[in-house]
Amino acid sequence: MAEPFGDRVSLVVFGASGDLAKKKTFPALFGLFREGQLPSTVQIVGYARSNLSDEEFKDRIRPNLKLRNADKSKIDEFLSLCSYMHGPYDEDSGYVELLDKCVAYEKKHNVAVPERLFYLALPPSAFATVCRFLKKHLNSESGLKTRVIVEKPFGRDLQTFRELQENLSPLFTEDELYRIDHYLGKEMVKNLLVLRFGNEFLGAAWNKNHIKSIQISFKEAFGTQGRGGYFDTIGIIRDVMQNHMLQVFTLLTMERPVSFDPEAVRDEKVKVLKAVEPIDPKDVLLGQYSASEDGKEPGYLDDDTVNKDSKCFTYAAFALHIHNERWEGVPIVLRAGKALDESKVEIRIQFKPVAKGMFKEIQRNELVIRIQPDEAIYMKINSKIPGISTETSLTDLDLTYSKRYSDDFWIPEAYEALIRDCYLGNHSNFVRDDELDISWKLFTPFLEALEAADGPKPELYSYGSKGPKGLREFLASHGYVFSDEGTYQWPLTTPNVKGKI
User: Fold this and answer.
1) Inter-residue contact 145 to 5 (CB < 8 Å)
2) Can you give the residue ranges of the Glucose-6-phosphate dehydrogenase NAD-binding domain (predicted)?
3) Residue 456 main-chain phi, psi, to 5 deg
4) Is 91 within the bounds of a domain?
5) Residue 317 in contact with residue 284, Cβ under 8 Å?
């Protein structure tokens, strides 16, 4: 792990006038400052092409800064650290001015070894250009410490990822690059390694001998909402499955690393990806949402920015199969969709049935890990109904974070956690180049088969429904057994959140 940055850092956010910076980057920086995790002596510079004054820029980001339990003066203190520059991304002039600003700050504070963190809240098409100018003007001094955060998507297939990598690797080393996938910063995702390897009873059962099937699901209760033209070029698989969900998959299935050292963790993620069988394009459930049954919500093709003949997938479900000693024969289903009945991201691990004999019928154990909203872990267990009855009932062991931890307990949001990791030089929760190469090798042939002219057409499902009608049959064909007692309901400790399939 690299050495942490000190308290005199120039932190530059490119694309500072955009939505990502406004809604995620600057609120995360403020959250760290509010909690004492970001020094009050750093310099924060917003850089973008928009011609804004300092005050106009600060007025733009101010409404998104969350106080939590802090005094309002904290916002003013944070904004006093921030300044704004406007300039082009593809000309020397802006970078020369930015260098002067960094050097003046470093001289003022007698900084012997400059430390500079660049956050690229930009489209991937701008990464190479900005990085070339950064290398030329702001990363050419000897002894300088530089870190660069880049946002997904990291290409749209194997070829475009490799082109991006070829452009960036001569400019910055792998140690200097931090590829951010914000799902790796989510609290419950970060908890997976401790949950798996810090509990003997789970570690002993975390294999093909005890687990029947695994589901990782990503559900959104809203559609593309005017972003249809953009989404049409990406689809649900590129949007959340090749990146966010695959990261969860690797943490669920990797072998135990020798330590929490970033490279030890990332080595194991790469190993398990190498053991994954090519994805079968014939064994997939694909959907596209149509208007809601009551007609109040539009269908995907009703978006004026979408081609009326588009067969873009807004829903997909498919299985990954790992050929190794731990997971051989266990289907791991990834399913994701937009415009569904609820917004929820969760993991469902269903165990094999207990031996027959003393029980005629008994439900299967299931571990449910809810990543969002309202982080929670449930173990569905069988228990005797209290009283004189000898019947069993499916109940749960419940760890709901909102009930276990008070509001005063700070749980960092994903971007807060990841920017802090970068500041500290911790690569554990960032994506390495060889991991991306292997993941695109896995997904590119699959996507090419699905998106070919003669590829499958998506099944229509109504906005606000559970998804394509074949979902239940698809899950059953991949090892998931539905409870005979009907749909499992979340306990009353988490109102309005149901664990329906």
Assistant:
1) yes
2) 12-191
3) -65, 150
4) yes
5) yes
Distance in angstroms (rounded) separating the CA atoms of residues 156 and 388: 61
Peptide bond into 373 cis (omega under 30): yes
Q: Which residues pair with 395 in a beta bridge?
A: 381
Task: List the domain range (segments joined by +) for residue 285.
Answer: 185-477
Whether 404 and 275 share a structural domain: yes
| Overall size of the chain counted in residues | 501
Q: Looking at the annotation, which residues are catalytic?
A: 244
List, in order, residues 6 or more apart from 237 with CB less than 8 Å away: 313, 316, 336, 443, 446, 447, 450
Asked if 136 and 217 sit in the same domain, the reply is no
59/351 Cα distance (integer angstroms): 52
Cα(17)–Cα(182) distance, integer angstroms: 20
Comparing CA positions, the residue from 124, 133, 135 lying closest to residue 233 is: 124
CB 158: neighbour CB atoms within 10 A? 20
Counting beta carbons within 10 angstroms of the beta carbon of residue 34, is it exposed (0 to 12), middle (13 to 18) or buried (19 or more)?
buried
DSSP conformation letters of 454-485: TSPPPEEEETTBSS-TTHHHHHHHTT----TT
492 located within any domain:
no
Residue 255 DSSP label: P
Type and span of the H or E element at 102:
helix 92-108
Sequence-ordered alpha helix ranges (H) in 334-462 = 401-404, 414-424, 433-451
The string of DSSP letters for 432-451 reads: -HHHHHHHHHHHHHHHHHHH
Give the other-Cβ count within 10 Å of 460's Cβ.
Answer: 16
Model pLDDT for residues 36-72, shown as the tens digit of each residue: 999 999 999 999 999 999 999 999 999 999 998 888 8
pLDDT, tens only, 397-438:
888 887 887 767 788 899 999 999 999 999 989 999 999 999
